[in-house]
Design brief:
The chain is of the alpha+beta class and 386 residues long. The chain contains five helices and five strands. The longest helix is centred in the middle third of the chain and has 204 residues.
Length: 386
């Protein structure tokens, strides 16, 4: 590779030398031509025509010589440039060749170093393997000796351990058997208790249903009686109103004070009669009937008093819109009044509590049940937000 590059470089150098010699010869010819032209010009100097011609030829010769010299110079420069480029190409090729040689040497050196290192590592690994094998054999021999020495003791300990495990297992099995018996007994007791509680619950539910049915029947009976009583009172009040109208006509000229005294006395006598009648009744059903009859009589007396007060032109009290509650204490009874006043209506609810224990409920002087009394008042309070 180097010999080829050297040969190419020598060839380019020889060519450049030949071109240099040719250029020198050309320059010498140009100089000789110029000298001859000058000599010819001098010989013809005396004649103007000759001089002119000489000058023209001289000028032409100079121009030609210059053109030729420029052309030769340009050619020399081109040849020199080519030579330089070729020289640079040769140098580059030589450099590349040197680089390739150096790279090949470097790779060869690296391969050698790598192979040497691998060989060294392999030798080291083999040395370590041999040492490990020796060490493992020594340890195996020692372990074999230790194993042989401790095997007997291990067998004895293992026998004891197995015996202890068997003993503990037998004890645990016995404990589990006893616990299972206890659990079974506890479960039987719990099941029996749960069954008894369920039976009690069913009995209680049945009793509650029976009681609810009885209470519903009793409530229906009471409401039926109260409805019948209300109807009787309505008929009575209608008759009493008609009679009161007649009595008012008769008593219109009687002093109102006398009428009030008569009404008060009638009320007191009626209350005394009612109390005596109630105290003489022990049977619950008869007592309820007696209370109804007595209340009818009391309402009759109250109606008489009301009629008397009306005939006496007693002023009716005006209440503010909303709910007004009053309590009226009398000798033998207490009256709780709840007046519900709306824009276009007014309702008066009364709860009358007698000293002997009787309790009666009214709406606008019409007897109603306790359930209806409480329901109507609660609804009114909700409506009027009291």
């Amino acid at each position: 590779m180097k010999a080829i590059a050297d040969a190419k470089a020598k060839a380019y150098a020889d060519k450049a030398e030949r071109e240099r010699i040719a250029a020198e010869e050309l320059a010498k010819k140009e100089a000789d031509a110029k000298a001859k032209a000058e000599a010819d010009s001098t010989a013809a100097f005396n004649t103007a025509e000759t001089k002119r011609k000489v000058e023209e030829e001289k000028a032409k010769a100079i121009a030609d010589a210059k053109a030729k010299a420029d052309a030769e110079k340009a050619e020399r420069e081109r040849i020199a440039a080519e030579a330089k480029a070729k020289q640079e190409e040769i140098a580059k090729a030589d450099s590349l060749a040197k680089f390739n040689v150096a790279e090949a040497k470097r790779k060869a050196d690296e391969d050698k170093i790598k192979k040497d290192a691998e060989a060294k590592a392999a030798m080291e690994a083999e040395r370590k393997r041999i040492e490990e094998e020796k060490k493992a054999k020594i340890e195996a021999d020692a372990m074999a000796k230790v194993t042989a020495d401790s095997l007997k003791a291990f067998n004895i300990a293992e026998t004891k351990r197995l015996a202890e495990e068997a003993r503990l297992k037998k004890a645990a099995d016995e404990k589990a058997r006893v616990q299972a018996i206890e659990d079974a007994k506890a479960k039987a007791i719990a099941d029996a208790k749960a069954k008894a509680e369920e039976e009690e619950r069913l009995k209680a539910e049945e009793a509650a249903k029976i009681q609810a049915a009885q209470e519903a029947a009793e409530l229906a009976r009471i409401e039926k009686e109260e409805a019948a009583r209300a109807e009787s009172l309505r008929i009575f009040n209608e008759k009493k109103a008609a009679q009161a109208k007649i009595d008012a006509e008769k008593n219109k000229n009687v002093d109102p004070k006398i009428l009030a005294e008569r009404a008060a006395k009638a009320k007191a006598d009626s209350l005394a009669l009612i109390e005596n009648e109630i105290n003489s009744i022990n049977d619950k059903e008869n007592k309820n009937k007696a209370l109804t009859a007595a209340e009818v009589k009391r309402m009759q007396e109250l109606q008489t008093l009301r009629d008397a007060m009306t005939s006496a032109s007693a002023l009716k009290k005006e209440y503010a819109e909303g709910i007004t509650e009053e309590k009226i204490d009398e000798a033998k009874l207490t009256t709780y009044k709840t007046i519900v006043k709306r824009k276009s209506s007014q309702e008066v609810y009364k709860k009358v509590v007698y000293n002997w224990g009787g309790v009666f409920y009214f709406k606008n002087d019409q007897s109603i049940s306790e359930l209806s009394y409480n329901l109507l008042i609660n609804n009114a309070k909700k409506e009027l937000k009291k």
